[in-house]
Structure formats: structure tokens, C-alpha cells
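sry for the spam today, last one i promise. C-alpha cells for design, 75 residues
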């Protein structure tokens, strides 16, 4: 599922990278509960992004358009 919406998941990942940088401020590393919270938020956010964008792509059967052959000149 995350592979099907890889561009959107990548963009969500970039957002969480910037959030991590904002949390770090001047520190060289994120430790403790902030690290665990950031990882949990990033993974759940990327999975949620993949679910949202994979639902938009899949149409119900009754909503799919069926095509018919168009008669050509001389048929």
C-alpha cells in the first residue's frame, strides 16, 4: 500500500523530517520520549497517507466506466 502511494508517502516523510529538525533545535540528537514519539508519529502518518491516497485510486465496481467499441465508417 505504501508503495502504491510512494510519492505522497515520501512527501509526508519530508514533513516529519522537518518536524524532527524543529524538535532538535540546537541538539545533535533526539533522545528519550521525543524520539519514540517522533518515530511513532512518522510511521503512523505515512501509513495514514498511504491509506488515504490508495482509497482515492480504487473505484467501486459500479463507478467504473465501461467502454464499448465505436462503429467506424464502413462497419
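last one done:
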Amino acid at each position: 500500500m505504501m508503495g502504491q502511494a510512494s510519492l505522497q508517502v515520501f512527501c509526508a516523510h519530508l514533513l516529519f523530517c522537518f518536524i524532527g529538525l524543529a524538535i532538535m533545535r540546537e541538539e545533535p540528537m533526539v533522545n528519550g520520549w521525543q524520539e519514540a514519539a517522533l518515530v511513532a508519529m512518522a510511521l503512523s502518518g505515512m501509513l495514514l497517507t498511504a491509506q488515504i491516497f490508495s482509497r482515492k485510486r480504487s473505484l467501486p465496481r459500479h463507478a467504473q466506466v465501461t467502454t464499448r467499441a465505436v462503429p467506424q465508417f464502413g462497419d
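The mean pLDDT is 83. ok im logging off now
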